Amino acid sequence: MITMIAAAAENNELGAQNGMIWHLPDDFKRFKKLTSGHHVIMGRKTFESLDKPLPNRTNVVITRDKDYEKLGAVSVQSLEAALEIAQNDVQPFIIGGGEIYKMGLPFADKIELTRVHGTFANADTFFPEFSTDEWKLESETRHEIDEKHKYAFTYQTWVRR
């Protein structure tokens, strides 16, 4: 089962200038819990935006650069090659960025989406549109604003129909 996992705002905003627009600690904890022990597939810009490779996960980086080598990551030149590397993982995760999500949507069986309740005019990266004709909302849990979270958000699990 191939799962895309993302946090996107009301207009599908993901980030700006290769970074996050919001800080949601509980979402980070959920991301870590869901992806630990699995392959995480991402684009080069997403990988380079991290402080270090994500621990307890196989970091697979998609890049056009055939000579790209970074400690703690496996580099490939296509999504298909990334999925081949992850073929023995029961649930590899596609973790971004925008172009990788767009490429990954046709392959995905599930979307773990944190819908951030807000809009962000400075965003330059977006989650792809997906149709409720093709996807069914399986569950959702709302998280309100609190002392650690400036924005309310909802965890949504979507499964392909």
TrEMBL record:
Enzyme Commission no: 1.5.1.3
InterPro entries: DHFR (IPR012259), DHFR-like_dom_sf (IPR024072), DHFR_dom (IPR001796)
Pfam family, one: DHFR_1
Enzyme class: oxidoreductase
The reaction(s) this protein catalyses: (6S)-5,6,7,8-tetrahydrofolate + NADP(+) = 7,8-dihydrofolate + NADPH + H(+)
Keyword Transferase: no
Keyword line: NADP, One-carbon metabolism, Oxidoreductase
Gene Ontology CC annotations of this record: cytosol
Keyword NADP (UniProt): yes
Recorded coiled-coil stretches: none
Domain DHFR intervals: 1-160
GO terms for biological process, alphabetical: dihydrofolate metabolic process; folic acid metabolic process; one-carbon metabolic process; tetrahydrofolate biosynthetic process
This protein's pathway: Cofactor biosynthesis; tetrahydrofolate biosynthesis; 5,6,7,8-tetrahydrofolate from 7,8-dihydrofolate: step 1/1
Record GO terms (molecular function): dihydrofolate reductase activity; NADP+ binding
PANTHER family reported in the protein's UniProt record: DIHYDROFOLATE REDUCTASE
Protein function: Key enzyme in folate metabolism. Catalyzes an essential reaction for de novo glycine and purine synthesis, and for DNA precursor synthesis.
Stated family: Belongs to the dihydrofolate reductase family.
Name the UniProt record assigns to this protein: Dihydrofolate reductase
Taxonomic source organism: Aequorivita xiaoshiensis
